Amino acid sequence: MKREWWIAAAVLLLDRAAKLPASGLPAEGVTLIPGVIGLRFAKNTGMAFSLLNGHPWLLGVLSALVIIAAFLFLRGKKIAPLPAAGLMMMLGGAAGNMIDRFITGYVPDMIEFLFIDFAIFNIADAFLCIGCGLLIISLLFRPQDWRDEHGT
């Protein structure tokens, strides 16, 4: 998995760059594509769909523990490219949101779907979902990705 670490780094950098100007968005938001997508700043002190709202340090510590556990479990393992890319996207996204929780006490969200009543989210959240989707695709449709070096 060493060659995929750049994906986690790229996701983290993209997330950080997108969050920097987010707090300067006007309160009413900005429409990018009318009726489809816009930008509006929101402070999320919880996790997905504001679960555990108001406990950013707890979520930050939990994020750090999950990242460390995943690193310890996955280091040295041979993982196929598709699930490895998904895992690195999830790692970059988790790291981006964890950093925000520790630095500001909230995660800045700014991407808003205008055609559906859905949570406002950020780049890290998007890559967490994309990475999870890649893992699901790999698990369901690519069993060869999950065989160990002995073929079982």
Summarize the structure.
The chain has 152 residues and is of the alpha+beta class. Helix content is 50%, strand content 12%.
Q: What is the CA-based Rg, rounded?
A: 17 Å
The major β-sheet equals: 3 strands, antiparallel
Structural class by helix and strand composition: alpha+beta
What does the overall shape look like?
globular
- Unreliable stretches (pLDDT < 50, length at least 5) are none
SSE string: HEEHHEH
Mean pLDDT: 90
Helix proportion: 40-55%
Strand order across the largest sheet: 1-2-3
Number of helices: 4
Strand content: 5-15%
Quick one: how many beta strands?
3
Distance between the termini: 20 Å
Account of the 3D structure:
The chain has about 150 residues and is of the alpha+beta class. The chain has four helices and three strands, in the order αββααβα. It has helices at about 5-20, 55-75, 80-105, 125-140; strands at about 30-35, 35-45, 105-115. The mean pLDDT is about 90.
State the main characteristics:
4 helices, 152 residues, alpha+beta, 12% strand, three-stranded antiparallel beta sheet, 50% helix
Strand and helix layout:
Layout: H1 5-19, E1 30-33, E2 37-44, H2 56-74, H3 81-103, E3 107-113, H4 123-141
Antiparallel strand pairs: 1-2, 2-3
Helix pairs in contact: 1-3, 2-3, 3-4
